[in-house]
Amino acid sequence: MKEMILEYIKNEYLDEEEAEDIKLNENTPLISGGIVDSFSMVSLKRFLEKKFVISIPDDEASPQAFDTVTSILALVNRHLAKKGA
Amino acid sequence: MAYPAAVKEAWLGELAGIRQKGIYKEERYIHSPQAARIQVEFPSGAALQPVVNLCANNYLGLSSHPDVVAAAHKALDERGYGMSSVRFICGTQDVHRELEQKLTEFLGTEDTILFASCLDANAGVFEAILSPEDVMISDRLVHASIVDGIRLCKAMHDTYKHCDMAHLEQKLQEHQDKRIRVIITDGVFSMDGDIAPLDEIVALGEQYHALVFLDDSHATGFIGKTGRGVHEHCGVMGKIDIITTTLGKAMGGASGGCVSGRKEIVELCRQKARPYLFSNAVPPPIAAASITVLNILSKTTERRDKLEVNATFWRKGLIDAGFVIREGESPIVPVMLFNAKLAQDVARDLYYEGVYVVGFFFPVVAAGQARIRTQLSADHDIPMLERALESFKKVGAKHGILGLDKKAIIEKFGQ
Question: Do B164 and A13 touch (CB under 8 A)?
Fold first, then answer.
């Protein structure tokens, strides 16, 4: 799951030069680090919702919750657990 | 009136945080009309410093042009100072409609509606014409006012990588189920000075049934052979559905903006765009002076031609001196320094060498992309630019950056 999200972020947000310069991992700060701007993170939210068949309310899709892949995974897992319950 | 101490403390803390991060914006007081050479008081209370202005949007040097000033004086006498009304109540004079017609003709569109600013035009247009079943697909580097306009609109939004046509195409394919698709781009991007590939955008719009929106604020009056804008430059005049632009930059530089484009879109803005409905009409002297600006630009391309010569000279001069610049064709020439502190230090040193420029860094530009944005004007001349180049060389040598490429600057100063 982690790799899939990292791959999406790389393809969706980095241009060729950045893809060479920036080595992404699950703790790379995405929004506070200026890799993903908060305005463009909407496509990441839609990707997660579609891929994992969940619905993330707008008030939970905060720049903090989307700042690292680790925090994104926590958010996704919370919604998956809710769905399974 | 209650102003709780805790609230005051919180705001003071926020201001201190802004200062601490080094992003506190300070105004510099100019004691002369806007021009290539100005007198600046900075810091507050300091003796006036004569400087060459390389950071104004005064691309055509019309901000203080005698004919423009005279037209404003005449309108002040004949049409008064202000309208004390929004347009649709009793705020529309003959000069407002005349200016709208002249802008329509100049931009090669079907109709035009004036707003108090281009920020207002961008804030109002999307909400006026789009619904939740539509999608707005914007370049990731569009101006902040477009971002605000998109946020005010209930249609879905998505973004594509800066000027990346393959990514835009992918997004258009993804959103084929929507009622209306609008591709949204700046003509010239304000922080990078690069020009959108508008011919390719129009072609994709035609292929995937999408409207095209263009904010040409940093292009109207000087980009394209006769200064019509990026749509002229890219050979797609008449094919742009919505153009927003400003009168506050090259076109005299006072204030005011517009939405120009398809008749029905303009008509819907007159009925529904909130900044148009609830904000005063452009003051008569500005409307009349803007008509004079359009008359000047329709008569001769002399000013945009001189600007082109100046920009070419300046770009070459900086490259020859050993600076890293963002390449392009516009009069916006960013000198790349990558490190925020370096950008601030170089800008400060240049000021004391008689060159007024400003350093930009994250969050205004992407992290690690700090720069000094220089902007040329038709008011500059080559000897003036030669002297400014000497100042750049002197300051560049002081910081040891001449001849260094991006990697070497980052190695030396950090990113």
Answer: no
